[in-house]
Amino acid sequence: MSATTRETRPDEPVPDRPEEPEPVLPELRPMWWEQGMRARVNAGLFGVFTGMPRLIVEALKISWSADRVRTGIVAASTLTSGAMATFGLLATQRVLVALFAAGPTPDRVRAALPALALLAFATAVRGALGIATGYAMNGLTPRVNQRAERRLFETTTAVRLDAFDQDSFADSMERASRGSDSVIDLVQGVMNLLAGVVSLCAVTVAVVVIHPLLLVALVVATAPNGYAALRAGHVKFGTYLESSARRRRMWVLHRLMAERVSASELRSYGLRDFVLGLYDRVMGAQTAVEMVLARRMTTTTSLGAVISGLATAGVYVLLGVLLLEGRIPLAAAATCVVAVQAAQRALVQVTFQTDRVFTDGQHFNEYVAFLSRADAHLPRRSEQTPPQPGPLRELIVRGISHHYPERDTPAVDDVTLTIRAGQTVALVGENGSGKSTLAALIAGLRDPSAGVLLWNDRPVTDWDITALQGRISVVLQEHHKWPFTAATNLAMGDIDTPPERQRIEDAARLAAAHDMILELPHGYDTLLDRTFAEGQDLSGGQWQRITAGRGFLRDADLLIMDEPSSALDPRAEDTLFQAIRGRQGHRTTILITHRLANVVHADRIFVMHHGRLVEEGTHGELIAAGGRYAELFALQSAGYQIGRCPGA
Question: From what superkingdom does this record's organism come (predicted)?
């Protein structure tokens, strides 16, 4: 990462190199978890190459599992094509020997015809193999990409929610997405590398037969260029690793400046210059890093090219000396020129493909490493088939705590409470008191740092987690606006058993969403996303009705509703809470809300403050206690009283 950066005006040219000393943007400051990556980058080429065989095997396994036939065709065609190149070189040598032999020209041409036929055959076979390889790769590429990407998404959709609280996980996931794209490139690069090695081995034998010194000269001519290319790729990847945070920040800024969702506030608050300024700061830092990278890569590759060019000239000088001194015949010299050119092409191919395998392998390593690290965030699985949970009788929260990363104080601190079947309970408290986190722990979305959650006197970790979550329905405060039809948005509440339209409409009525949906252009079949043709956008309150309807659809043993009415109008709010009260006595509901008038009928009210449970009881008991709940209720009640004014 760039160590420092300074603020620049939108019209100010970006400097080639950051100045010292400068303030560091928070999103660009090096993080503790980057040290391991930097250590690997600084390990040198040899340290990275030691892991290449494992990555190559892993990539070939993915390709083989995606399509065995096409993988086999690519491998066979590539290797055979390399062998045909060698065969063509040998045929060329025989042609030259025949043409440079003594005797009449017609006789020499006739003597060369069989070798010319073999050369034509080798060329035709290589062409056919190239077509076969291209055909196989065209079909293999989408299958491999799908397999690698599916494997990535299988992991990202399975990890626990707390994984997304960690910056390191987000950066690692960003690099892994690039790594999934590199699988097919790595497979193709390995195939081409093997073909180049086959050609190089055969040409090497031919050159050694002519004269051993030519091989030494050839290595000297090509090795500097190859090493320079590899070194440049290593430096480039190191910069790529250190730019993860900047790339994510740029992605966020691109969305802020070009999407409809932020367009209104951007204009109403006059944020154009502010956001452009952020763009200039982040992109300025990235541009400065890339300028340094460009200079380093240009210097490295240029030096390699100059040294290799001088050495190549030396090869031809050596060949001329050997020819003049009579150490090799003219036919052998001509063959040697062809062999040297073929060897250089093979070495260039090997160098290029090695660099490609090296680069793609490093990206692919991020993909493999992410999958490995993500295992630590996957839900724990029992070796034995866990039992199926029965209907909820009692839910016990015993000494539960939860810490978020990089926070000193716990969001939930040693909370103990009991909820019985059929009860409607409320979690209340000021912002940041830990209500939503506690609800997420109860819903199984997060794992507690300490304590235990019991479902029917048994820890929830002992039950089949999938079956248990099927008995819980959650309406989140920060709900997602799914880009599907209104019907699908509701049906997602019980996606395992796709509901009939009548059941969907009944759930919508409970959330005061039915009439609102019928007013949409296509009713329940209206697409709720303006980025598509005929798509519609909804207001915050309308989306909240859709979300509440999705929660009602499942008719779960336990319904958790986090601020379900914060954006609703009074009539819709009344309908929603009538539906919630209708569950009382036969279904369990946990209600989180700041509107305390809506919880007066709750069987039990739990008051949270700074992560701790400070009060509990019925509405009447808490009012009589005169504690925090009574104070909050009095403050809200005062807002509904008729105000007094002078002369009234």
Answer: Bacteria
